[in-house]
Every structure is written in C-alpha cells, then in structure tokens.
Amino acid sequence: MKVRKPAWAGRFYPGEPEALREMTTSLLAAAPLQNEDRRLLGLVVPHAGYIYSGSTAAAGYRLAAEAGIDTVIVIAPSHGQYVRGVSLYDGEAYATPLGEIEVDGELTRRLAEASPHLHLSQEGHTLFDGRPEHSLEVQLPFLQSALKREFRLAAAVFHDYDWEICRALGDAIAAVYREGMLIIASSDLYHGESLAECRLADDRTLGILLRGEAEGFCRAHAAGEVEACGAGPIAALLRTGERLGASSVRLLARTNSEEVTGESSGYVVGYAAAAVEWPRS
Asked: How far is 18 from 103, CA to CA, in rounded Å?
C-alpha cells in the first residue's frame, strides 16, 4: 500500500498514541459546543503545533463531532513545494499515530477528473527538499478523535491561489458533495513581528472571511488585504458553499501565538476557527 506516514508526530503534536489521544480529547472537551442548529458544510481551522493553535482548532472540531461525518475533504496549503494546480493524494491512506485513514479513491478520482487544474499526485504530500508538509497532517488526529465513526479522506494541497484554480476546486467539491461530507480548509493567519499588527490584520482578514464571498476573499488576498497562508483553501471552501447555498460563515474562536503562550518571542502567528454552514431555515 502507498501510505503517507506521519512526519510531524513528536514535533507539532505528541508522537505516542496515548498522549496524542489524551491531548486531543482534552482539547475537544474544553472547547464549547457552539451548535446553533445549522447544518455544517466545512471548517476553517489552523495548523500550527497543538500547544499553540490546538484549542482554536478544537473549537471547530467540537462542532464537527456532532455532524455525523463519514467523509472528509481536507484542503491545505503547500508551504515548501510549488504544486502545479491542485494535488490530490493518489495513495491508499494517510497515517497518524492513531492509525491509518483510508483515502477514498473513487471520490479523489472524481475530483481529479472535474478540472484540468486538479490532478492525482504525491506532490506537496510527501518529502520535498527534506521537508514534509505539515498543514494537512496536523488536522488528521483531531478528526480521528472528534468524529464518532470511521471516515474516509480526500487530501488536497496547492500553492497557486489564482481565482481560476480556487474556483475549479470549489466547483469540483460542490459537484461531488453529499450529506455526511465535511470540508476542512487549513490555514493560519498573520505571520509577523507585531502583536498589535497581528490583531489588526486578523480583524481585517476575518471581516472579509465572514462576508462569505469566495472570489472577493481570493482577490483580497492577491491585493494584500487578507493575510492567511491557506487563503486558497478558504476561497475554495467558500466557493463550494456558494454553489450549495451554504452562505453563512460564523467565527468560532480566534487567538494568536503570543496570547496563547503569554510570552513575547518577537514573532506572532494568528489563528482562527470558523464554520461554513447553511443558514437557518
């Protein structure tokens, strides 16, 4: 079997299964359930080390735990490797210390066939220049701990956030969507040296996100108005929501690395969790 092995266990999150399960379970239990009786399409969640962004991510995954999910599409940025279009993992499974997650091969192939911008590949998923991608991997232990049943996975990474590519991915997901699916957009927010600027930049980014306008969000990122390393994944999720009528975006949690640690390290990263949902009927 072609299995993507865990590369960041013991660094971004605990490497021992018992410690990992205990940490994710504790974070999920501490997160408030913000269920407003809306149907959940997807989540925006951060991807830093769990000691930094775990409590923020848990605010999203706590909501997903109630949603009866059996299939998850994770869309993540490629930080190290430039990826042509969108790379959909063509292996059989992604693994974490909590076990292997089966890749839904049929779903992945249907996504790849939907647009020339989408293709089956290991690009962005495996080692590149000695560094594996973390932004998708760190979402998986949370999913394994939060969801009440076994689930299958489609794993997508990309780097080029041109609107045509974001739209193609969002449209492809909308075309295959069925009840029981969850879409995860993996993204941190501001990266820089100023806590004050982090708060201002994240205010601006989240304000644009909450409008729920996919093309507007994508173009705001291109113009420098949005600071999010996963702006493309977010735009694709918003596009899926537009196509399916899930137009409501709700902020669940936000913080930053300095507020979490209580220490000034000279470098700050912003984090937020948001839900993309169908409006109340």
From this structure: 24
